[in-house]
């Protein structure tokens, strides 16, 4: 009788853990868009990665954008970082860091400009300079 109760408790515990993992998978999808707002005819190269994913290098012509989406992990440590190369300079930056960006944006929009990379906030159309170029 005791063994049956232990098995029933263990089974219930496993069901609860499985349900908790499903909750983590239902988190909102994060959408990253990086716009080329450089002067006409100028392009940039962007190469984004996370610990687990390498998205490859992409060339983005003027007035176009680069977009990717993902679901953050359940422990809130998701990090994507990018190297950006322009005629004006280059730099590496965290394009999505959960602790900084989860409260800031659901659709994280970035703008590549002559002096660096600007970020939008979801609830505002204001830009903030996040990253300046190095030469």
Automatic annotation (TrEMBL):
Its main location: secreted. One of its GO terms (biological process) is rejection of self pollen. The keyword Metal-binding does not apply. Pfam families: Self-incomp_S1 (PF05938). Residues 1-20 form the signal peptide. One of its GO terms (cellular component) is extracellular region. It is found in: Secreted. Keywords: Secreted, Self-incompatibility, Signal. Belongs to the plant self-incompatibility (S1) protein family. This is S-protein homolog. It comes from Trapa incisa. The lineage of its organism: Eukaryota, Viridiplantae, Streptophyta, Embryophyta, Tracheophyta.
